[in-house]
Amino acid sequence: MLGRVAFRAGSRRPEHGLQAKASKKWRVTKTKRSLWPFAETVARLSAAIADAGNTVFATIDQSAAARGVGLTLRPTTLIVFGNPRGGTPLMDAFPLVALELPLKIAVWEEDGSVNVTYEPVSELAARYEVSGMDARIAAMDAALEALTGVLSTQ
Fold first, then answer.
1. Would you say 11 and 129 are in contact if contact means Cβ atoms under 8 Å apart?
2. What is the pLDDT of residues 131-141, one digit of tens each?
3. Any alpha helices (H) in the chain, and if so which ranges?
4. Using one digit for the tens of pLDDT, what is the confidence trace for 113-125?
5. d(CA 24, CA 132)
6. Phi/psi zone of residue 70: left (φ > 0), alpha (ψ -120 to 50 degrees), beta?
7. What is the C-alpha to C-alpha distance for residues 73 and 66, in angstroms, rounded to an integer?
8. Which residues are 59's β-sheet partners?
9. Please, what are the domains in the chain?
């Protein structure tokens, strides 16, 4: 049987018997409306992610997965991506951030509109009480804003 293991904020050593420290506030996300149809939005976003020097680790067609078990879901795709140069230092200093990385962007369609949604890195950093990495976090937020900004009207 495995024991409970948690990391003290800012520590690399596990502290047995402690609860993981994460804020209980609601997640804050940003959603933008895409200028393009669903499939083109996914393709353009994937290309922009790669062109920016990131690795697309997975593209998950969640509506196809739903169809596979006899359910329906609006067109929904999750793109999982990142750049080890950005995320590794965060995970090294704050191991529980690995629960949130790599980054994710959801593309989903509803009522004829294609939406692109992500969680700013600053939000996940606050949840895990990340400190001393303000410039890195701001750069990652700016990169997410730039990637999604070229697709959107808002």
1. no
2. 999 999 999 99
3. 38-51, 62-68, 84-93, 121-127, 134-149
4. 999 999 999 999 9
5. 22
6. left
7. 6
8. 79
9. 27-149 (3.30.310.70)
